[in-house]
Amino acid sequence: MYSDEIDLEADTVLATLYAAKKYIVPALAKACVNFLETSLEAKNACVLLSQSRLFEEPELSQRCWEVIDAQAELSLKSEGFCEIDQQTLEIILTRETLNTKEVVVFDAVLNWAVAECKRQGLVVTTRNKRNVLGKALYLVRIPTMTLEEFANGAAQSDILTLEETHNIFLWYTASNKPTLEFPLAQRKGLAPQKCHRFQSSAYRSNQWRYRGRCDSIQFAVDKRIFIAGLGLYGSSGGKAEYSVKIELKRQGTVLAQNLTTFISDGSSSTFSVWFEHPVQVEQDTFYTVSCILDGNELSYFGQEGMTEVQCGKVTFQFQCSSDSTNGTGVQGGQIPELIFYA
Q: Which residues, if any, are the signal sequence (predicted)?
C-alpha cells in the first residue's frame, strides 16, 4: 500500500484480493484479478467462479464461465468443483451451455454431496447427501441421459428414491409417461466454430497421398479459445477409411493427442476428428497442430491458403511448421480446418 510494489503468489492471491476489497485498494484488486485470469484453467475454474461471485468481479466470472462451458467435463471432475458453495453449485447446474454429457454432471453432484457432508461433519449417508444437496439434485437433467447411461449409473446410485427410479424408467419406456421433478430439456451445449484456412480445394492424379507422414501447421490467435479438433480432407477416389493421429503442441510440449479412424465419402468435404477434451489456447502464442494419416487413397488438398483468417471475433494467424514432412504449409496442403470454441 505504501510502495505500490505488488508480488503475488498463487497461495495468497485470494486472501490478497479479499484485503484489497476490504481496504478499498482498487489497483491491488485489479492486479489480483489479472493474476487469477492468467492462472485460470479447468481444475480451478469452479473455485474461482465461486470466489469471483463473492468478490463481485463480473469480468473474472465471465472468464471462468468460458472455461467451465468449453471444458465442462474437466471442470466438473476437478477437485475444485467439490469445494464450491451451494449457490455456485446451483448456478452451474442451471447452465444451458455446459458442454458435456449429463452423466458427468450427475457424478459431479454426487462427489460434491460427499464433500459437503464431510465439511459439515455429517456421516456420509443417502439421507445426508440428499439433505445437503437440497433442490440442487432436481437441477440435474437425468431424463436427458440415454436409457443405458441411466440404468448403469444414476439408477444404481443410492441418491434416488425407489419411486424416483421407477418413474424415470417409466418415463423412458412407457407411452403414458409420469410427471418428473427433473428437467426434461437437453442442455444446448456449445456450437463448435470452424476456421477454414484455404480458399479452394483440388485433387490431381498422383498428386497428394497421406502415406503416414506428418502434416503440420502453426497458428496463433488474438483471443483465448479452446481447440476441440481438426477438419481433414479425405479420399478423392471414393469411399475410404483412414487411421489418424492428431496432436496439439506448444513450444514442443504435447498438450493433447488422439488416435482414431474416420471414413471419408470421396467428396471434397472436410471430416472432423476430435481431441478427447477441448484444449485451452492462449492469445499471441504460436501452437502447432499435426496429423499423421494412413490410407492408400489419393486425397484432396487445399489451395490458396491464407496467412490470416477472421472467424467471428477471433483472428487466426498461420505459419509453416518444421514438423511438416508431407508438404503441408500455409499456401496449400492438409489440415484445412481448426475446430474450436470461443
A: none
Q: Which three cell numbers stand for residue 193?
A: 466454430
- Give the integer Cα–Cα distance in Å for 305 and 331: 4
Place of cell 446410485: 157
Q: Helices (H), strands (E): how many in the chain?
A: 10, 12
The answer to whether residues 243 and 264 touch, using CB atoms and an 8 Å cutoff, is: no
As a dihedral over the C-alpha atoms of residue 119, residue 124, residue 130, residue 132, rounded to 10 degrees, the angle is -10
* Res 206 pLDDT > 70: no
Confidence band of 201 (pLDDT split at 50, 70, 90): confident
pLDDT (0 to 100) of residue 204: 66
pLDDT of 3 above 80: no
Q: Do 21 and 44 meet the contact criterion of CB atoms below 8 Å apart?
A: no
Residue with grid cell 514438423, as numbered in its chain: 323
pTM, two decimal places: 0.87
- We find that the CATH architecture of domain 193-341 is Sandwich (2.60)
